[in-house]
Amino acid sequence: MSKPTYNDLLKAGVHFGHMKRKWNPKMLPYIFMERKGIHIIDLNRTLECMDDAASAMKQIAKSGRKILFVATKKQAKEIVAAAARSVNMPYVTERWLGGMMTNFATIRRSVKKMQNIEKLLNDKSATSITKKERLTLSRERDKLQKVLGGIERLNRIPSAVFIVDISHEHIAVAESKKLGLRTFGIVDTNSNPSQVDFPIPGNDDASKSVKIILDTMVNAIKEGLDERKNAKEEKAEESPAATA
Fold first, then answer.
1. 68, 33, 40: which is closest to 217 by C-alpha?
2. CA dist., res. 158 & res. 56, Å (int)
3. Average pLDDT taken over every residue of the chain
């Protein structure tokens, strides 16, 4: 697994925390020092936490379970969506709907509605739909797609959730904890790291910082998926021999 170095994290600005007056005292073990009123994150701790999180994510992916990525902050949403798509994982980057996990059946009905509208709009034989009705349906489809498109293929509650800025996404954190899901998160100096199982101390406001951490997680997931695929292929090769 390709891992970033201390200098890589430094160049990406992962070490920059928030103003001292905004800090959460529970982040003390992850803070290196204060400089000009700003807390500096200990990148050695960041590297340790990234290793732990990556190992756990690799095992989840290897077992065939899903990890939901969540980031609705402007500077992180595109990075997170691209990362999740690269490993065929679900994601939420527009808005976390209340009950998205705790009321998953209702969310699935909304997804089904979106898919039915899509089928209707693509059905060339549906001549009974007027131009006005088609326009209304298209708008509704687009609205649903924007919010639910990233979880369209998520047929069951995921096993884990990766969150960028756990303070900003506190509802997602709360729902995940309520359901007992494994939680991963980038935690800045204003956050409470005990809110997630695998906190990764780092700057959650800079796109470069978010990307370098996400790239490491994605590489770990890819390794897990590759190992799963290889194990299946080996089993398939052994099966004919076993039955011969």
1. 68
2. 15
3. 93
